[in-house]
Amino acid sequence: xxxxxxxxxxxxxxxxxxxxxxxxxxxxxxxxxxxxxxxxxxxxxxxxxxxxxxxxxxxxxxxxxxxxxxxxxxxxxxxxxxxxxxxxxxxxxxxxxxxxxxxxxxxxx
Length: 109
Prior knowledge:
By secondary structure, the chain is mainly alpha-helical. Helix content is 30%, strand content 7%.
């Protein structure tokens, strides 16, 4: 006996037109306390990437730096402790954040 396959009623989604939701900053990073802490840290340390794994390829004078919590807030890090904040260039910040997110996800399963 030969079996017939039913025709699919599902259509494929066109991924060229589907966009992920727009990223929104956590409200904490918009507070006057965080902004004051960042201004103080940049004044003391300079506008440089402090990540020891950074290769320096994205560095330029006056570059944008991100105040990144060494121990992320989601993992119990101190919100306004300067010792828990490292200045990172965009590439280093993205790499570290992705690694921390992957680690949290791996611990769930």
